[in-house]
Amino acid sequence: MLCAGDDSGMKLLIYSHFFRPSIGGVETVVELLANGLANLRTAEGAAVYEVTVVTNTSAHDDVLPPCFRIIRCPTKAELRELIRRSDLVHVAGVAIPPLREALRLKRPVVVEHHGFQAICPTGQLLQEPEDIPCPGHFMKGNHGKCLRCRKAGSRFAPMRLWMLTFFRRYLSKRVNANIVPTAWLGEQLELPRLRVIPHGLRREAAIVRIENNVPRIAFVGRLVTTKGVGLLLEAARILKIQNRRFEIRIIGTGPEREALEKRIKEWGLGGEVKLLGFVPEEEIAMRLADAAVVVVPSLGGEVFGMVVAESMLRGLPVIASDLGAFAEVLNNPAQTFRTGDVEALARQLIRVLDDSRLADRWGRQGRERAVETFTEERMIEGHDRVYREILESKTSKV
Q1: β-strand 88-92 against 336-337: which pairing, if any?
Q2: What whole-number distance in Å separates Cα of residue 298 and Cα of residue 232?
Q3: Angle at 219 between CA 129 and CA 375, to 5 degrees
Q4: Is 302 exposed, middle or buried (CB count within 10 Å of its CB: 0-12, 13-18, 19+)?
Q5: Whole-angstrom Cα distance, residue 96 to residue 190?
């Protein structure tokens, strides 16, 4: 990772509870943002930002030195001092400690919402243990529903999470800007000073797709209930009953793997479904080259859909549940199915597997939209614009 120079600029602190070597959408977005801002230069070549990333993710020896400083697992006193020395604080997610400290110290602060923590105690907008989409009980004042939403064994957690949601919402209303990656998320949050800045993606060429005698369906993501892998297996049962030839390749790891393996065996899907486990980021595109379609069947918890956007950028056709964020990113209702509806998912799969021209068209259209809309440059420019507006407003009031 090369830096454009080493001149100091505005002191920007980005706080992200999770960061590399942890793997996830938040980690990816924060690293792209930090690197892009650290490389911004004025016309004279001076650095616009001096970026520091603060995280609670434990120490890791980076192969290449980043263009920004990384502070891991700071004490409360260290975090306070880092915030005090910053010109502006960017908090990835509604993390209470840095937000509370930045507001107390009267530092300009923005929140980028990567979840539903300001409107849902679990942060997933999903009713548990049923694992069905939540209609927004917290914002509708149906707090009894929130307090009954829990995983098995979590007797006191719902009350604590419910109370913290009020506090997170209070803090979010006091910041200088609330940044969201989709307009749909902004509508759900109902917070002041909202700014929509779609996540950016690393540039990459479209995949040269390989045709197979047996159509391959791909899934990429963590093996957790909210990602809907179980729904995909149920759809596979329907396809098999209809004597259709297909393969499903599941890329990713997670706590649900053992349960999925058991289900695959019980349902006799061993010949059709392959769990590939963890695949390095640099190898994913190669593993997807022979995919007829990428399926993103999430049940909830999605504010953008990195897998959706990345698949679009690669020129791959996508079928996704009709969650608001996915619908906005895809911008094509024909590529969605009703969330949690296994028969609707099966029908969509049959439709695209039977019509290669339709799949090709979706792939081309998705690629065009991703190249135009979800660029790293637009993400960096959007954040830079918000930061400048905040700091200029502060200066004008002095």
Answers
A1: unpaired
A2: 10
A3: 105
A4: buried
A5: 19
Residue whose C-alpha is closest to residue 378's, from 309, 301, 296:
309
Domains of the chain in sequence order: 10-200+375-397 (3.40.50.2000), 216-373 (3.40.50.2000)
Identity (one letter) of the amino acid at 30? V
pLDDT band at residue 206, thresholds of 50, 70 and 90?
confident
Report DSSP letters for 353-382, one per residue: HH-HHHHHHHHHHHHHHHHHHSBHHHHHHH
Both structure tokens of 175 = 């910041």
Burial, 257: exposed, middle or buried (Cβ in 10 Å; 0-12, 13-18, 19+)? middle
Would you give the distance in Å from CA 6 to the centre of its chain? 31
pLDDT tens profile 223-237: 999 999 999 999 999
Please classify residue 181 by burial: count the beta carbons closer than 10 Å to its beta carbon, then call 0-12 exposed, 13-18 middle and 19+ buried: buried
Residue type (1 letter), 384 = D
Q: What is the DSSP letter of 205?
A: P
Q: Global pTM?
A: 0.93
What dihedral angle (degrees, nearest 10) is formed by the CA atoms of 115, 141, 184, 325?
Answer: 50
